[in-house]
Structures are given as C-alpha cells and as structure tokens.
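Re: pyridoxal-5'-phosphate structure - here you go.
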Amino acid sequence: MDKPTQTALLTCGAGIVLGIGATLAAQMLLSTDSSSSLPRRRSSPELKEDIRNGLEECIGNTPLILLKSLSEATGCEILAKAEFLEPGGSIKDRVALHILRTAEAAGQLAPHSGDKVYEGTVGSTGVSLAVLCRARGYLAHICMPSDQSIEKSSLLEKLGAEVSRVPPAPIVDQNQFVNRARNLAREHSNNPDIPGRGYFADQFENDGNWRAHYDSTGPEIFRQCGGRLDAFVAGAGTGGTISGVARYLKPRLPQLKVVLADPHGSGLYNRVKFGVMFASTEREGTRRRHQVDTIVEGIGINRVTHNFEIGRPLVEDAVRITDEEAMAMARFLVEKEGIFVGSSSAVNLVGAVRTALKLGPGHRVVTILCDSGTRHLSKFWKQAGNVGGAWDMTLDDVLDADSRHKGTHGTVVQGEPAGAGI
Ligand SMILES: Cc1ncc(COP(=O)(O)O)c(C=O)c1O
C-alpha cells in the first residue's frame, strides 16, 4: 500500500472512530428516558455520583470481613473491621479527624492561620495527625523519644510534620515526649512572635478520642452486623477504641460481652479483672528502665488513662495474649486469608478466638484489624519470620504457640515499653 492510500485509510478510520465516539457520547449525555421520549441527562438517579470531597471523606466505613478460617475453626463468626484500609493506614485516622474537627468547632483551631497541632506519639496517631493536618491546613509537630527508629521520624517529616526527638524519660519528667508536646503547645500559644496558636491533641485524655469511635466505629459495626453480635474484643492503648465502641453498643445490645485483649507487660488486664493497675513486671525490685515484656506496639499500658476509664465499667472480661500467640496468629492470617496485619491486630484476633471458644459455637464475635503489617516489619514481623507453605497450620498451632516455643517465651526485646507504639 502506497503512502497516500495509507494516510487516506487512517484518516477515514479515525473519522469513523471519532464519529462513533461522538455519537456514543451524545447518547450517554442525552439518552432517552424509558418512560418518555424526552432526552435524559447523564446524572440519572441510577447513576448517582460517588465522589469524596478530599481525603477526610475517605475515612471510616471500612469493610467488616468474615474471617473464614477462624470462623470455621471456632464454629463462630469471627468478623474483623478492616481499619488497615484507612487512608492514613490505621484506625487513628478517625481519632485525628474527630479531634481536629472538635477543636475547629470550639474555635481552638482555624485552617491556614499558622495554628499548629502538637502531639506526643511514636505510632499511628502521629501519622494520622500529620496527614490530616496537611489536608486541613495546619502544621503538625510530633514529639517522640530519641530511641525510636529513624524511619518513624523520617516518615513524619515526609508527611510535612515537624519532629522533636527527645531523650527517653518517665511520664513524671517534664521532658517526657508527651509532656514536651503539651509544653510546646502552651509556649506556642503564649508567644506573640510565633504566628497562630498551639493545640495539644492529647489523645490519652481528650474526649474526642473515644467519641470518634462512639460516632463512627460503633455505629458502623452495629449497622454492618444488622444489629446482631455477641462479643466485641479489642486491645487498648489509649483505650479510645474499646471505650467508644462499648459505649455505643452496650445500651443497644445489653447482652454484648466487651472483652479486652491485653499483651504481656500491660497492667490493663488486672485493671479489668481486679480493679487494680498492676503488671507483675512492675513488682518492687524488678523494674527495669524499660518495662518491656512484649513486642506488640500500639496496645498495652501501665497507667490509668481517661479514655480507658470512660469505658472500663462496660468491659467485663480480659484475656492476656503472649507474643508467641500473636506472632503465630499473624502468620496464620497470612497463610489462610492473605491478610497481612500488625501486632495489635494479631493480639485482637487471638482475643476474639479465645472469646469465641468460651462462648461456644454459633456466636458472632467482632474485632479490629488496626493497621497493616507493613508498619511492623522491623520489629514484630522481623521476629515473627517469613510465611510460606504452612498449609497444614491449624488454630491449635496458634493457641499452643507458647508451649511450642518454650524457652523463647519471655524474650525481652530491648527498647520500648508496652504500648510504646501509641
Ligand atoms: C496500631 C494500633 N493498634 C491499636 C491501638 C489502640 O487503640 P486505642 O488507642 O484506641 O486503644 C493503637 C493506638 O495507637 C495503635 O497504634
């Protein structure tokens, strides 16, 4: 075929394609209504637009997943709220958004005014705050202990936050990272030379934390379950999740059992069971500089917080989970479901399974998958090891993980206290 003929054919072909395209586009825009011969606009009731107004509108409404392997093994429905799918990567997106909105409504924060949000955190809350501060026109300043991995502070900096790394110190020290954040916020507000105001997010004591779950996580679970569930199981760092969800669900489902899943080294188990805050690692004379009995991050704590106490009367039972069980559960979940979660989610799942076995077959137990395993590669997953081909792994392998690993259980990983990842 010579060049002019080729060009003519291409032009003709393109014309036909364009012509068909234009006709289709016109039909789509002005397609006829079946009930009349009048043209209809594209935004028909059947094609409702679904557009989120910024990142904030992508928070919440996460799927509730039936975990088939755990459900089959227990005879109960084990359902998990997929918070690892939140845009900021964890359940803390809900809390960060709620805290910012509440402060705005109270006139404590105004977008693009130079106002800065301060928080002491080494975990997911910092990431969620950094992301949402950018999205809503604020600066974020995160304080963390200097013994934390550099990846954590780098990530926050990449998200536009300022980071102060302060020497590790006990909570009574004014330079402890949470106290430092509070003090910096106060200094900011008191200094007329710095633009804007300082706002201390204060996730442990701020009512906006549990209320975020009362307003969103709780109602979503209730709706997604069609109002039918027998138990809710969760670990607690600040306590916001378990308190907020319990406070929403309990009045609607008085028979519901709310169960705390607590890692070793945390005092919350004893707080629920016996009303006292005491972990055996806290015993006189045994206290190390770092109270480390777990590699789990984000849950477990050895002090009383407002966000836990506000829901504690509704928490009727607690289960204590070892690192071995959590690691075995995390591997089991990848092996059987292809779901890769972090350490607190694994603890929650062991707690959910133990609760299901206690309740007996036919019950429905709901828990939370707080964040993804990608946030836990250098600690929890490093120790949990790789996953591959353990097709014959059973739930008993998870629940007996402790006795199978006798000798390694109790291994102390130096560096961070229980709940250090909050
Ligand atoms: C990964 C992860 N899981 C669970 C929690 C516990 O949630 P809460 O603080 O609501 O008790 C946290 C807290 O920061 C967390 O970071």
